[in-house]
Amino acid sequence: MVTRRAYDEGCAVAHALDLVGERWALLVVRELLFGPKRFTDLDGRLAGVSTSVLSQRLQELAGAGVLVRRKLPPPAASWVYELTEWGHQLEPIIMALGQWGNQSPQFNCEAPVTPASMALALKGFANPARVKNLTGLVELQLDGEVFHAFPQDGRLLVTGATSGQPDARIITSPGRLRPFLHGLTATSNSLRDNGIQTEGDRRTAVALLAAMGS
After folding, report:
1. Which of 33, 85, 169, 209 could form a disulfide with 199 if both were Cys (CB 3.0 to 4.6 A apart)?
2. What pLDDT, in 10s, does the model give residues 121-142?
3. pLDDT value at residue 145
4. How far apart, in whole angstroms, are the C-alpha atoms of residue 201 and residue 135?
């Protein structure tokens, strides 16, 4: 059994790193920010992690009170992992780390990205001055995962699937949305040219991606 090393400092930052500073821990949290997932879901999204390391991280995070494991009611009846209320408080920290890391000259912005990571990026790149032009609910289907994006109090919110009826639907892979985060003008033609399928009110779908950037 691997013995974890601790910083042994009376510093809250050091203690936080004792809890979530191990490799893959914060990425597990990132994947759970939009709702519970099964072990196989996490294993499929975090392609570089071994099943043994993933199991260890889940046990450690559960032991720290960051997440819980529970069984879904029938007919699903499968075991899932989900963040606790305290675990959800890591979202702004993860968002801030992403914004900081995006400024690194060594950041490879062409590397693969998970649906949850792109959902967070949409929130982080949304310009409040442009979000006001978005007036509806957009459903994002990213490699089979479903998210809902909508304006609230001048900000863009992106959540897991809700009960709301979307005005528009975007169906694509996460990487195809990346150009719009980095300056590509969102139009019906640019969405189509980037292989992005839309359903419903296309103007609402365009308005979501047009809200990205400065």
Report:
1. 169
2. 999 999 999 999 999 999 999 9
3. 95
4. 11
Q: What is the pLDDT of residues 106-115, one digit of tens each?
A: 999 889 999 9
Question: What is the overall mean pLDDT for the chain?
Answer: 93
How many other C-beta atoms can be found within 10 angstroms of the C-beta atom of residue 165?
9
Cβ neighbours of residue 136 closer than 8 Å, sequence gap 6 or more: 150, 166, 167, 168, 201, 204, 207
Token digits of residue 202: 């296309």
- Is pTM beyond 0.70? Reply is yes
Task: For the chain, list the domains and their CATH numbers.
Answer: 12-101 (1.10.10.10), 115-210 (3.30.1050.10)
Concatenated DSSP letters of 61-122? HHHTTSEEEEEPPTTT--EEEEE-HHHHTTHHHHHHHHHHHTT-TT--TTS---HHHHHHHH
